[in-house]
Amino acid sequence: MLALLALLPTPALADGLIDNVNGLTIDKAGKVVRFNGLLIDKDGKVSKLLERKDKRPERPDFKTDGKGLTLMPGIIDAHGHVMGVGFQALTLDLSAAKSLEEAKTMIAAYVQAHPDRKWILGTGWNQEAWGLGRFPTAADLDAVVSDRPVWLRRVDGHAGWANSAAMAAAGVTAKTASPAGGRIEKTGAAPGGVFVDAAMDLIQKSVPEPLARERDLAFVKGQQTLLSYGITAIADMGTSLDDWMTYRRAGDNGGLHIRILSYAAGVPAMIQIGGPGPSPWLYSDKLRMVGVKLLSDGALGSRGAWLKRPYHDAPNETGLGFLTDAQLRNLMSRAAMDNFQVAVHAIGDKANAQLLDAIDELAQTYKGDRRWRVEHAQIVDPVDIARFGQHGTIASMQPVHQTSDRLMAEARLGPDRLAGAYAWETMIKAGSRLAFGSDTPVESPDPFAGIAAAFTREDAKGQPFGGWQPQERVTREQALAAFTTGGAYASFAEDRLGSLTPGMRADFILIDTDPLMATPAEIRATKVRETWVGGRPVYTRK
Amino acid sequence: MLALLALLPTPALADGLIDNVNGLTIDKAGKVVRFNGLLIDKDGKVSKLLERKDKRPERPDFKTDGKGLTLMPGIIDAHGHVMGVGFQALTLDLSAAKSLEEAKTMIAAYVQAHPDRKWILGTGWNQEAWGLGRFPTAADLDAVVSDRPVWLRRVDGHAGWANSAAMAAAGVTAKTASPAGGRIEKTGAAPGGVFVDAAMDLIQKSVPEPLARERDLAFVKGQQTLLSYGITAIADMGTSLDDWMTYRRAGDNGGLHIRILSYAAGVPAMIQIGGPGPSPWLYSDKLRMVGVKLLSDGALGSRGAWLKRPYHDAPNETGLGFLTDAQLRNLMSRAAMDNFQVAVHAIGDKANAQLLDAIDELAQTYKGDRRWRVEHAQIVDPVDIARFGQHGTIASMQPVHQTSDRLMAEARLGPDRLAGAYAWETMIKAGSRLAFGSDTPVESPDPFAGIAAAFTREDAKGQPFGGWQPQERVTREQALAAFTTGGAYASFAEDRLGSLTPGMRADFILIDTDPLMATPAEIRATKVRETWVGGRPVYTRK
């Protein structure tokens, strides 16, 4: 009889205990809650937060001693590109290059190390970080590689840099015209080698598609990287059909550990993936296609961001608006009519105004809890910011962009248009729901750099002292919320993710600093010791 | 303590019992096994076959009295089109029309009943059944509907019939040339309205794509139809990406009840669905992408089947070979290199010979258990039949095609080429593994018509008496095996499906005849009373 009893599923036996931690979370009311131990149930959900005085279960299934480390909710990165992170790891990564010469040296070394690659592909270059004062050229690349095509995406994904062999392979000549929504940089009459936004496809269409097994490998790499930074869930902003099939293969094979909140790359992919509506939560809440990602303009670095007035440093340019008002409304409407959530990339003040107008109009037809998402909301005309407080609009912003872009943004915009730039605190005051992310692989996925930037507006070197436009700092608690509960809310996941309160998924990290107490430098140096998803460890620092 | 004990999962409590049945199955050795009761475990697998004398469990979770009905394995239809069955149910179905005039009456009634449809779509017409002596024409259709496009697929799916409005919408004129692998039937110089094989796409590309919710509805209809005929698993021959996404939606939402053994519609779909290899078994063995379906020729009715010598009734035609030898090998090779199973439609003797040559060559490179599938293998040169016994080749054939096509086949082929036509018994003697299917919606999915045809070679009217080419009859046991264990083997599923032996999925049907004992007429009249998949009832006859 005793043997039979031992088989009974009693509550105590199903519990796991993470004890002796400096626990913190944001609760449903937005308040910080502190705790010392965390009980997990057999479904991988939080069953109880324990204070020091609380009684511990006598025989939990497993018990982990947190050794005083800080335990906080796993980060929800509200804007990233999972496959981009993976492919960056598998191809040439130029993000460390500090000059064109350094980049050329890295390219030469990579080509020598990969003699079998028919195309040399890479990412991460940023002429702004090189002090080059111009875009790089095909000739710059030809000097290093002339025997096969080279195609390198800019750090922001909004431009690509080709050598002459790549342009020849793609059939691009002096006669090739810039497509709508794109720009071919020129050297005299000839294509200069850099292709901005929609013009990228002139080269991209000739690049061999990755094999499925390369996609699978990229996913594994991307997931590994994100988990190592403490990211347990990520809004994947622009999931292609092939990306989706890759995530499903991982799920089907038991290899999906991070939670992916997927936004399809455009309406056709949205329909093909989701069919008549958003997907259900799949694989124990590891994957869901929530809505669609649309693009209304380009990026600031490549002067693709769509501005109301010309660029300060290019008086004949106002950037690239990708969609007419009617096109934008039609796409948003197609998604909203089937209850897909709409997330629209808008960087320039003109693009933001266009989008806010569209939300205003569509909200008349598509009522209820829609959570229209503005991705980036970087350069907003101050007269438009109050509108972020209407219709449940969400500002999905990336704190590290502010510190990375500061000097470039000042050059692009001049001194008069900075009041509504990266205006986090004003967004909150306007009543917008804020969600923070990294835009990785455009930036490092490291959320601690984001948290530090969010409450200081200083970069890693402490510049500028006191913070850039310091009135836009948020509190530490607001930063933490925007990286946890804010991201969950922004993807309709607040009923299961973002907060370590009973009934929520036990997604958490053990870290060596307390982000509500430590200095900005300490926070930036945070090491993630363990990452847990659904009550199971999925990353342990070696 | 007694209350606690009641919660204990004891083996007896997890069992279900279907008792008092006339049970039969084919075991792993190919022998018929008889039983009187079936025990099912909590995973929905067969745990034990019970004879009359065997002791029954005392308190099974559930108990069903079979009331003496025959219980046999669920049918595995080795060749069908799940979405086709569903769409046939949702659009105009002309398969009951016995003449052009009847078809026109049905079309007129349908158009009147559906004034909102912008295109009139349908299937099931067969000019051979109309005694028309020619293809129908656009003018025939225009006489009924001229104000909007009409597009009707032939019963075999290998031709389409358009009215003038459809041809105008698609931009087809007298100048439009027949594409490779296709034929535009002509009326003088003008397109006549019928488009064969690859020419169908000239119209099809202009037909509005179904909405995702229409696909979902078609799936529900198709599944319902198949289960009502006792089909518990089906090889879906030509799963498009959209079909696959539909099946996955059903699986994700708990609405997938039939087992789908999927063969992707061509290599690009295969790669996009499967990625680096066949999918795992999904949803408790309800769905798996096993391999690829390729097409090497058309069909006999539309004179698309590729023959070694000209058609008897069209001396200038030898049919349509879709692929060169090199193309066929390349496609097969692309699939086989990643361990996808290869299933190739081959109807004419030339197409079969081409395919057997390709298998011969590829088997040198792709060794091991490959199970090359020849779909239809309808008209085979007797000199080639022995080759079906090599390299583990599978003949995937449809008994009802023989009875439906008999007169047409005699007209198309003349008297001298019938020795290798629908040559089931010779295939078995040659050592080929036989799998039977329906090709639904080309034919009714009813497997009992197939079983009766298989051991009689007589049609529903008993014609011709004694059977057409009666030496090609198979035994009742062979017919049953080809519809159960044969279909499982043909899709690498014999470790879980096809036989009601312990450890196999409890997929079975309760029917009112014993197919090993009843007359052909009784077998054709069989009613499926219940269909069970994975130990649960999924269809009950009202």
From TrEMBL, chains A, B:
Q: Which organism is it from?
A: Sphingomonas cavernae
Cross-referenced InterPro entries, in alphabetical order? Amidohydro_3, Metal-dep_hydrolase_composite, Metal_Hydrolase, YtcJ-like
Name this polypeptide is given? Amidohydrolase
Q: Where is the Amidohydrolase domain?
A: 65-539
What CDD domains does the record point to? YtcJ_like
What's a Gene Ontology MF term here? Answer: hydrolase activity, acting on carbon-nitrogen (but not peptide) bonds
Q: Superkingdom of the source?
A: Bacteria
Keywords for the protein's UniProt record, in alphabetical order: Hydrolase
Mention any Pfam family matching this sequence: Amidohydro_3
